[in-house]
Amino acid sequence: MTQLTVATPRVTRIERIDGTNGAGRKYRVSFDVGDPVLLPSVTTVLSAVWPKPWLVPWARGVEREAIRAGLNEYVDDPLYGGQRTIERSTVDAILKAASKRPEEVRDTAGDFGTRFHALVEHYLEEQPPRELVWYAADLGAAFDNFRSWYMESELTVTLSEQMVYDLPLGYAGTFDATARTREGRLVVVDWKSSNRMSDDYPVQLAAYAIALEDMNGEAVNEAWVV
Fold first, then answer.
1. What average pLDDT does range 157-184 have in this prediction?
2. Which of 74, 189, 220, 221 could lock onto 80 through a cystine, CB 3.0 to 4.6 A?
3. Residues sharing a CB contact under 8 Å with residue 180, sequence separation 6 or more, in sequence order
4. In the chain, what percentage of residues exceed pLDDT 70?
């Protein structure tokens, strides 16, 4: 009796597709046979199902501060110090600018995070890591903290910007680094430049770890949020 062997399709490429017009990020996983598969990113999935109750109070606080700053310009102005009337159009302009402020703060933070990740990746590509002669001043404190942590962690980073996917669970994503401890334990690592430890970070890293295990067949021993 002839035994028929069916080969498992081999992944040839993983591409990241950034969302537009509010659409979440996706990944296109291509194989040596058959059609590509489009998978949502881990962060896209989590943003849809994981509540962030702190976002609304944060946005309201940013708007209030923007309104206060806008009105203070007139309170401190000697022309308005004598209780002169502020035009309605001026009030409308202050409120309109304040309503946009949370998005502006978010975009600025996103730009900071992107540049910080690029700086860390550049630093880790040097073997052994060397001192960077120059980097943007606003990244200084975060980068110095990272560098101190890295020297004390005794981790050896083996790969930066690792793309992973999990077909059965239906997601893909990119985490910042794989590393080894002194004992050789495999670690999934993600750098975070936010000022809070979000509850969904451990879930995010667990998803990366599961996908990496399925792809490589090696157990991930630890996952670190830095």
1. 91
2. 74
3. 155, 156, 158, 186, 187
4. 82
SS3 of 180-211: the string is: ECCCCCEEEEECCCCCCCCCCHHHHHHHHHHH
User: Rounded CA gap, 72 and 66, in Å?
Assistant: 10
pTM value is: 0.71
Owner of token pair 């110090």: 81
Q: Are 55 and 105 in contact (CB under 8 A)?
A: no
DSSP structure class, residue 8: P
47 burial class (0-12, 13-18, 19+ CB within 10 angstroms)?
Answer: middle
pLDDT at 6: 47
Q: What residues have CB less than 8 Å from 89, skipping those under 6 apart?
A: none
Candidates 199, 209, 107; CA nearest to 166 is 209
Query: Tens digits of per-residue pLDDT, 134-168?
Result: 567 788 888 888 989 998 998 988 888 889 999 89
* Residue 87 tokens, joined: 């035009």
Condensed to tens digits (0 to 9), the pLDDT of residues 42-73 reads 988 888 887 666 667 777 888 888 888 887 77
Three-class DSSP category at 24: coil
Please give the backbone phi and psi of residue 193, each rounded to the nearest 5 degrees, phi first.
-105, 10
